[in-house]
Design goal:
protease, single chain, Peptidase_S1C, Chloro_Bact_Ser_Proteases, PDZ_sf, six-stranded antiparallel β-barrel
């Protein structure tokens, strides 16, 4: 019949009898406006509705049941929407999570690559190989460094480290402290040899390189005991070669290797090495106004040490060839002030008696009462090699021996002379005072 309530049919079922006097399947209740009410249950609850009372209070109860049913339905819809939203969000997070939120594993650490110099050993490896042969030398007046160059215990160091001592204490790498005997010294090169009395077992050694092959810009590694802080290594480059130092032991050292590898008090006597771990020099001094390293250090070239090593091992006095002059380098301003005809060379200011300079008849300049120098020979070359300053002269003489003949080119006034002389031995410093 038209207007039939689906929910009513489902509740009563087709062919089920209704209340007494009603047609099967007919709508029963309080009127057409309430046709959708289920007569036998509380709306939305599935619980049978209370029976009607005799006084007819069933209608208000039915309205309350319908309201509850609607609210329950709305609640179910809202709950379903909420559950769906949460499920969708979870699904979304589950999908995007691995890319956005899961930590990305880092790659394993890459092993540090060693600093390689010219395809040869790195500083770490050089130190490991060289350190056992580097020793500390202790004297009553201070400490210094040295290195073993012969497995029998022969050590090279600076003369100024052991000056005045016959024996010293030597601290070996294995912790032993042994006695060292000073075999020979060379104040002119600031080098000395010490024999460590360490027993019959051979000691670790350092190989000697070729300092003549050293070029500016090459790597330089220094090992020693700076400031009594323990064995240390520093690295830098060769800054220059053929340098002349300030006066050491009253003599000017020449032919020195300059480096910016840090050298401090206590490094004296230690090795300066190349990238192959070979000794190219003996660290000797620094140029600094504060008695600390400022970037300029010097080492005695190892080839100069080789030349005197036989004498040092034998305990003989080392003789250095000497021209026997005192002088200053010329420059255009000095030449102009003195009225000289040449602008470069060495102006002779003093000639020592009994020397090659006296034999050659060199004439020194004369200082007037007002302090000006007048006259004097200018040495412009030795054995055909042009001279600009005293450093060049000393470097050349270091390659010669006492008794060798040399040829000097001299400018005297407006004349150019060539004279010869025999090199004599440089006297002890006391002889010049």
């Amino acid at each position: 019949m038209e207007g039939e309530n689906t929910y009513a049919r489902m509740a009563a079922g087709p062919g089920q009898p209704g209340p007494e006097g009603a047609e099967p399947g007919a709508v029963t209740g309080a009127g057409a406006g309430e046709a959708e009410r289920l007569p036998d249950e509380t709306p939305g609850s599935g619980v049978p509705a209370p029976a009607a009372t005799a006084d007819g209070d069933q209608a208000p109860a039915g309205r309350r049941d319908r309201a509850r049913r609607r609210l329950a339905a709305l609640a179910l819809v809202a709950l379903g929407a909420l559950v769906g939203a949460i499920a969708g969000t979870a699904a979304t997070l589950a999908w995007i999570g691995p890319a956005r939120y899961r930590p990305v594993p880092l790659p394993p650490p890459v092993p540090a690559r060693p600093v390689v110099y010219s395809g040869q050993a790195d500083v770490v490896q050089i130190y490991k190989q060289a350190a056992p042969a580097v020793v500390q030398i202790l004297t009553p007046t201070g400490t210094g460094s040295g290195f073993i160059f012969d497995p029998a215990g022969y050590i090279l160091t600076n003369n100024h480290v052991v000056e005045g001592a016959r024996t010293v204490r030597v601290l070996l790498d294995d912790g032993r402290e042994v006695t060292g005997r000073v075999l020979g010294v060379d104040p002119g090169n600031d080098v000395a040899v010490v024999a460590a009395q360490a027993g019959p077992a051979p000691l670790p050694t350092l190989p000697l390189g070729d300092s003549d092959a050293v070029q500016p810009g090459e790597p330089a590694i220094a090992i020693g005991f700076p400031l009594d802080e323990g064995k240390s290594v520093t690295a830098g480059i060769i800054s220059g070669t053929g340098r002349v130092s300030e006066r050491v032991n009253d003599w000017t050292l020449s032919g020195l290797i300059q480096t910016d590898a840090a050298i401090n008090p206590g490094n004296s006597g230690g090795p300066l090495m190349n990238a192959a771990g070979q000794v190219i020099g003996i660290n000797t001094l620094i140029a600094s106004p504060v008695r600390g390293f400022t970037g300029i250090g010097f080492a005695v070239p190892i080839n100069a040490v080789r030349a005197v090593l036989p004498d040092l091992l034998a305990g003989r006095r080392v003789e250095h060839p000497w021209l026997g002059i005192g002088g200053i380098p010329l420059n255009p301003q000095i030449a102009d002030d003195l009225g000289l005809q040449v602008t470069s060379g060495i102006l002779v200011q003093k000639v020592y008696p009994g020397t090659a300079a006296e034999e050659a008849g060199l004439r020194p300049a004369v200082q007037r009462p007002d302090g000006e120098w007048v006259g004097g020979d200018v040495i412009t070359a030795i054995d055909g090699r042009a001279l600009r300053d005293v450093a060049q002269l000393q470097s050349y003489l270091a390659s010669r021996r006492v008794g060798d003949r040399v040829r000097l080119t001299v400018r005297r006034g407006d004349q150019t002379l060539t004279v010869e002389a025999t090199l004599t031995a440089r006297p002890e410093r006391e002889a010049l005072r």
